[in-house]
Design goal:
With 385 residues, this protein is α+β, with helices and mostly antiparallel strands. The chain is built from seven helices and 17 strands. The chain has a five-stranded mixed β-sheet, with no helix packed on it. Strands 2-9-8-5-6 form a five-stranded antiparallel β-sheet. The radius of gyration is 24 Å and the shape is globular. The relative contact order is 0.14.
Length: 385
């Protein structure tokens, strides 16, 4: 198949990703257009593709963990919704940066399409703006790039990746949005846990981390214990502990927001008329919302374990917010990808070296484990056989 060209001008578009890039990559028009100039060029086998993540082609994502390798080939449902007043074109891009004619779909306004894909496949979205000479992939319309989406992993809830196109505000331009459509909000809770891990567990000192997570754990557990009690579902933001542990670092606020807490201005108890204070307030949860609270407790327990003195991130058990890595060793022309043969997995010796390095720079890490009790690549103690 001959090389295909992209239009030189992007659409006027704003991008939003509710998953913060955890479940997929949302590429903006300049990145897509810039990447297309190198699409189809051969990358030598063994090249570090993490240095050039925006090549416009399908790649292979997975986990550098043999216990989770089945995730590399799982089917990922993906839905595209066109809520704009324009026609939207979707193209799947193969490993060489080309788009087979059989994998091109055009969505009319208020139309949707469902596809099944795997991690690392790229879909380019464009809007048809005028009839004209052949331009994009040999079509007879002039198109403007809206962006591209490359799913990294299946959603924890098992729901589909939802990619939506809307008209821009005030009728100008477009909005390209990744939406978390899981009604239980578990996918969003995992994203919030990722940010807690980054901002609280891995950034604060250990004691501060334990106190922040402990406060969140108490708040959530109290609601589970007595969901009808209003005082467990109301937090005064001016409280010094809440202000320090919840409000100041925004990730705990996001965690509670996903659970249903919202800001409200309420009268001060026993105060004069007009004396109001800001609170975080949640409605009384129904059974499905209580199930989300129970899931939150489990995620917080995982985060608290990651604050333990002997915790080493490189050999820790997997979490629901673990981000997959790019496993491709390169791709050649004709759509033939040369995938990793396992050489990118971490060896036992490399894991030992990482544990040693982390132990030297971390207080109270404890002595090196006795022979035969090394952290395994499956996150359990004892070498795999």
């Amino acid at each position: 198949m001959e090389s295909q060209s992209f239009p030189s001008a992007p659409a006027d578009v704003v991008l939003y990703d509710a998953s913060d890039g955890l479940y997929g990559e949302l590429l903006d028009p300049p990145t897509v257009i810039e990447s297309s100039s190198s699409a189809g060029q051969q990358v030598h086998s063994g090249a570090d593709l993490s240095d050039v993540p925006n090549h416009l082609r399908s790649v292979r994502y997975g986990y550098a963990d043999t216990a989770r390798s089945s995730a590399e080939s799982e089917d990922i449902p993906i839905n595209f919704y066109n809520y704009s007043m324009s026609f939207v074109r979707i193209r799947w891009i193969d490993t060489s940066g080309q788009s087979p004619p059989s994998h091109v779909w055009t969505l009319a306004p208020n139309q949707e399409i469902n596809q099944s894909t795997t991690a690392g496949h790229v879909f380019v979205l464009s809007t048809i703006i005028a009839q004209g000479e052949q331009d994009l992939f040999g079509s007879n319309e002039t198109e403007a790039i809206l962006g591209a989406y490359r799913p990294k992993r299946a959603l924890p809830s098992g729901m589909h990746h939802s990619i939506q196109v809307h008209d821009g505000e005030s009728g100008g331009g477009y909005i390209l949005e990744v939406v978390l459509s899981d009604e239980s909000s578990y996918d969003a809770l995992v994203v919030a846990s990722l940010w807690l891990d980054k901002q609280v567990v891995l950034s604060q000192n250990r004691q501060d981390s334990i106190k922040t997570l402990g406060l969140l754990h108490t708040i959530v557990s109290n609601v589970i214990k007595d969901p009808t009690n209003d005082k467990y579902r109301k937090l005064r933001l001016s409280n010094s502990t809440v202000e320090k542990r919840i409000v100041r670092p925004w990730s705990p606020m996001e965690f509670l927001r996903v659970l249903g807490f919202v800001r409200q201005t309420l009268p001060i108890d026993n105060g004069e008329e007009g004396d109001d204070e800001e609170h975080l307030v949640a409605e009384m949860p129904n059974e499905s919302r209580l199930e989300l609270y129970r899931s939150a407790v489990g995620l917080l327990d995982q985060l608290k374990r990651r604050c333990s003195p002997g915790f080493v991130v490189d050999v820790a058990p997997p979490t629901p917010w673990d981000e997959p890595v790019l496993l491709s060793g390169g791709s050649g022309g004709g759509g033939r990808g040369r995938w990793s043969d396992g050489a990118h997995f971490i060896s036992d010796e490399d894991r030992w070296a990482r544990v040693e390095r982390a132990r030297r720079f971390r207080r109270n890490a404890g002595p090196r484990p006795a022979p035969g009790n090394a952290p395994s690549d499956r996150g359990r103690w004892g070498r795999p056989r």
